[in-house]
Structures are given as C-alpha cells and as structure tokens.
Design goal:
alpha+beta, seven-stranded mixed β-sheet, 10 helices, disordered N terminus
C-alpha cells in the first residue's frame, strides 16, 4: 500500500501568513492605480484601528479665511485670527474569499487546479481593488455634496463635440481651476484610447497632411499609448471603467488622490482538507481588511448603520454596492482640494480642429 503520509498537501505549498502578505503585496504591485500613484499607502490609517472599531478619524486644517489684510495703524492692535480644523472619516472594509478543488478534478484533468488558483489570487484581488475604487467614485459623484463639482460631461446636450477631444479634455482638467496641473493621471476605457489613436492629422478638404511652417501639425491628441501623456497627464487604460448606452466615463486624478492601508488579519490565509466531502476536497481561504480613503470626502457611518438597521441586515462591513451609495459620502473639502475629476464623453471619432489662415476666404 502506498505511503500516503508523504503526499504533498495544499498546506505544504505555502506558509499561509507569508503567502497572504505576498498576494496582498503582489496585487498592489500589479495594480496600475497604485503604480501610477493615484492610490498611495498610508500605514497610519491601519494603526488607528489597532484597538478595534470600524472608523478612522482624519483631522485636517481648513484653508485660512480670505479676510481683508489689516492696514497698519499705531492706535490699534493687530487682530489675531485662527486656522480652523475639521475631521473626515474613512471606513474599514472587510472581504473574504475561498477556493476549492476536488481530488477527482485534479485526477481527471491531469493538472493541479489549486496550485493554479494560488498563483492567480493576486490577480483576483487586483481586479477587486479596481472595483472598489470605481464603486467609491460612483458613490462620491452621486452624493449631493458633489453635485456639479469636479465634473465635465461632454454628452449633456449643450455642445456638438461629444468626443474625448483636446478641447473637452482641457475643460475637464480646468474643473480644478488654477490647480489643474495637480491632475497627473487620466484613466480611460480602451475604446476611448482607440479613438485617441485614430485621431487624424489629415485635412478633410484636401486629403493632405496638415503642415505649419513645414512641420506636421499634431492631431488634437496625438496617438497615445498607455503610459504616454496628454498635456503632461499620464494615460491609464482600464476596461472596468463605466460604459452605458455609448457614454464613457473617464477619470482624472492627482497623485495620492486615494489613501490605502492594509490591516493585519487573523488567519489571513487558511488551508484545509475534507476527505469525505465530494470524495476529497482541498480548500484555500483568503481574508482581507483594509481602508480606502478618497481625499476630501468623509464616510457617513450613521446613515450606513441606519439603513442596515432598517433592513435588519448585517452592518459589519460595507458591500461594493454600499461603497457606491451616494448617501454614505459627504464632501468636506473645498472643490479645488478634491483631487479627481469625472469626465464623460462618447467614443465617436475625434475630429481634427482646423483654423482658416489669415487672408483665406
């Protein structure tokens, strides 16, 4: 009889604690929103939750009041002003996931599905990270406090140009006014990238390449690739960005627009086996706790708890849909200090803008 005590088990494949840290780190390293600096690690967020609870308080200074300066007068004292403070809140999120494979699936396929799962879990969490970010943006931009703030919609019926043209891109950037240069990254759907690359540099009247002083006139936005820049703004491509009825949502971000902190978890990774169930099955469980905090926004815990109580539902951790709920987000900073902009267009062809030279009729 074979000595089954020497068989390799799932628990032998990885040291659970080390493996859990590895997959969390790898999911961050592969995530383009982390790589581009849109999301930045803020370890102190996690430290605030070491003693328990769900909320992180993040105090900040408000801008100084725009009071008139005082005119020197030796009969009066200088009036002293103060700087005001406020507190925004970030929510701890919790997510678990598990995977399993039966002995028969391994025997009949001739491969090891659980090892493949183990190698793919960092990719799984990377996609979840992206969903969390986009759901959070859904909630933020649908909140009453963000109505008509840091948004530019080229499809709102007030203009004929609905595309991701340079004029519309600039209109989106300048939603932050003189802080437009803070926006360092633009995230677009691949359909939008295709139209940017298709933007022509040909005169529609003559079919000739447009030249100015012997130099080729660039298109409105010149055939970019992911990682290239438009007006100094780096392009990130992600097909999980919202698309509905031919309308595409892109986002512009400043560096550090979102703060992220991964929390330690008991039994972050767990392996096991049930020899009776399904004639033998191995399983792998992954648990995560983390904080994602959009700058200038505060989580409304009281509204969240009230809704869960009314629905007699579990309120320990918000779902993805909860993250996208407008009721749970409140803007607490000046619009210019909200470091992201929502930009809505279609994927229709970007037309070359031409000007008539002086003297031509």
């Amino acid at each position: 009889m074979a000595d089954i005590t020497t068989a390799t088990k799932l628990a032998d494949m990885q040291i659970p604690e080390s493996w859990a840290r590895y997959t969390a780190q790898r999911s961050v390293e592969q995530d383009q929103f982390f790589q581009s600096g849109v999301i930045q690690a803020v370890p102190q967020l996690a430290s605030q939750l070491a003693g328990g609870g769900y909320l992180v308080n993040m105090p900040y200074f408000k801008p100084l009041a725009d009071d008139e300066p005082q005119i020197p007068d030796d009969s009066k004292d200088i009036e002293l002003h103060t700087i005001n403070t406020a507190v925004s809140q970030a929510r701890e999120y919790g997510m678990d996931q598990g995977w399993s494979a039966t002995d028969l699936s391994r025997e009949l396929s001739g491969t090891d599905p659980l090892r493949a799962m183990s190698d793919s879990i960092s990719d799984y969490w990377r996609h979840i990270n992206e969903k969390i970010l986009l759901k959070t943006l859904d909630g933020v931009y649908s909140s009453d406090s963000m109505k008509n703030i840091n948004q530019f919609d080229a499809t709102d019926g007030r203009r004929t140009d609905h595309a991701f043209s340079l004029a519309n891109f600039n209109a989106a950037r300048f939603q932050l006014g003189d802080r437009y240069q803070d926006l360092a990254v633009v995230a677009v759907h691949s359909d939008i990238l295709r139209e940017l690359q298709n933007a022509n540099i040909v005169d529609q009247k003559t079919g000739n390449t447009i030249l100015v002083n012997g130099n080729q006139l660039p298109s409105q936005i010149q055939a970019p690739n992911p990682g290239d820049t438009i007006k100094g703004v780096r392009i990130v491509v992600d097909d999980t960005l919202p698309v509905k009825d031919g309308v595409y949502t892109s986002y512009l971000f400043a560096t550090g627009a979102f703060g992220w902190s991964e929390l330690p978890v008991d039994n972050a990774a767990e392996t096991g086996r049930d020899g009776l169930r399904f004639h033998g099955v191995d399983y792998l469980i992954n648990r995560r706790r983390f904080v994602l905090a959009p700058t200038g926004m505060s989580w409304n815990e009281s509204a969240y708890q009230a809704d869960k109580a009314a629905a007699k539902a579990t309120a320990a951790f918000p779902t993805l849909d909860d993250m996208g709920n407008a009721k749970y987000w409140t803007r607490v900073a000046d619009a210019k200090n909200i470091p992201f902009v929502k930009f809505t267009t279609t994927d229709e062809a970007i037309k070359q803008t031409t000007t008539t030279p002086t003297g031509d009729k």
